[in-house]
Amino acid sequence: MLEPTNLQAMAEQAIFWRLEVNILDPLIVPFTASLTSLVLRRIPISQIHALPSGLFPSLKKLVLYISEADFNRSTPLAKRPIVAFEGAPALRHVATNNLFLDQPGVVTLRLPWHQLTHFISTDNHDGAPQRFIVKFLSQCVALQRLYISLLEDVLGEEYGDLPGQEPVTMPTLKSLTVNWWGSYEGVFQYPDFFDDFKFAGLRSLRLQGSRMEFDNLTAWNQDQVDKFLDKIEHEFRLEYLSICQRNVTRVTLEKLFKVTPYVTMLDAHIHENYEHLFETLTICQDPDQSFLPQLKTLVLELGSSEAVDECEGETIDPNTFADFLDSRMRCAPNNRLRKIVLYGGCMDEISDGVPFVEVIQRYLPAGLVLERHVVAELRDGKPDDDWLERDPDLQDWLEASALFKI
Q1: H-helix segments, 108-249
Q2: pLDDT digits (tens, 9 = 90+) for 200-257
Q3: Which of 62, 228, 263, 393 is 20 to 30 A from 241 via CA?
Q4: C-alpha triplet 201, 206, 98: angle, nearest 5°
């Protein structure tokens, strides 16, 4: 009999806490030797605790979503550490929404940090991001891709530096996503943990939140802006940049694009109808003196915008987009845009009849490539975090989207 290698176990929110029968024993335990991918979502925490260490010799990818209501309802005894995965020798990819208890320093989920290559944490309990960074990030010596949700304790003056040591170098980290929706009103501030780590190998950066305003003196002072941009320019060498925001000021876009001249792929989702983006990227004279001179691939999200929400207007203004695209297609061949990739929740959002898509079609005979993806099924039950389906490095781990569903 063939044994499964990929298994997803999920419980509906309304009934998960009533599960008195252990559903993991018949579903998982008979096949643990062969499982390479596992998704556990809203399974009672008591049943996950019952899984012993050493049960998953082949497991490579884990997605673990622990219900907040279940966690709060659990007794102190039930909040003891989860040990089932700490001895999994093949484990490389982990996505979870809960690492820590409310008490500082108490770990809910024990993992083999030294061998992880991909780690996604949406844990926004007070102090959780800070404790992960201070205690565990330096142990992730093989980490290549990191997604972390930041709160005020890691943004701005409340973050405490790592005590008495030089910045930790993480040469294997290639991709970093920082999500600051959990911070005050979703406003991005300087991530102070940047001072304690060197990400010299970073090639991909995603900035996700409500607003990014380098000219907002309440959120940033000039020294912080300079320090942030200097790190991007002189320590990173970004080839992939993703901006997922409600809005971004033009000053911010100009400053960010100025220090990322090697970016060849830009992924964008600016909810307020892409205000300022295409004006900033339009080439006026010399392409080499313009922003993102090596841009070859543009990835755009059309599934969510102000226009979609209000059922009025266009997500992307066709006239502004036409000026941008014309400037990117009439320059020298080495500087031309080569591909546009569109993502939408339905075909109507990216069809031939959409005005800015009509603009794109004018340049297809000149060699511009248009790619379209309808991803409604993948996003079913997921209110946001649409970036995951667009991320080129996560196409073999799309089951991680279970972490973001409600």
Answers
A1: 128-135, 222-234
A2: 999 999 999 888 888 887 778 889 899 999 999 999 999 999 999 989 999 999 999 9
A3: 62
A4: 95
CA dihedral 336, 338, 342, 347 (to 10 degrees): 120
Q: DSSP character for 172?
A: T
Beta-bridge mates of residue 245: 270
- pLDDT tier, 185 (very low <50, low <70, confident <90, very high otherwise): low
**Strands, E assignment, 110-200:** 118-121, 145-149, 168-169, 175-179, 197-198
CA distance 239 to 278: 19
| Distance, C-alpha 360 to centroid of its chain | 28
Residue 178: CB atoms within 10 Å: 21
d(CA 111, CA 117): 12
Cα separation of 157 and 187, whole Å? 15
Q: What residues contact 371, with CB distance under 8 A and at least 6 apart?
A: 339, 340, 341, 342
Over 80: is that where the pLDDT of 389 sits? Answer: yes
Contacts of 353-357 with CB under 8 Å at 24 or more apart are 354/302, 354/314, 355/314, 355/318, 356/314, 356/315, 356/316, 356/317, 356/318, 356/321, 356/322
Q: Region 93-104: what's the mean pLDDT?
A: 74
Alpha helices, DSSP H only, in 123-188?
128-135
In contact, 219 and 250? CB cutoff 8 Å: no
pLDDT greater than 70 at residue 85: yes
| Residues 350, 351, 356, 361, CA torsion sign | positive
Looking at the predicted structure, is the pLDDT value of residue 10 above 70?
A: no
Q: Which residues pair with 243 in a beta bridge?
A: 207, 268
pTM for the whole structure: 0.91
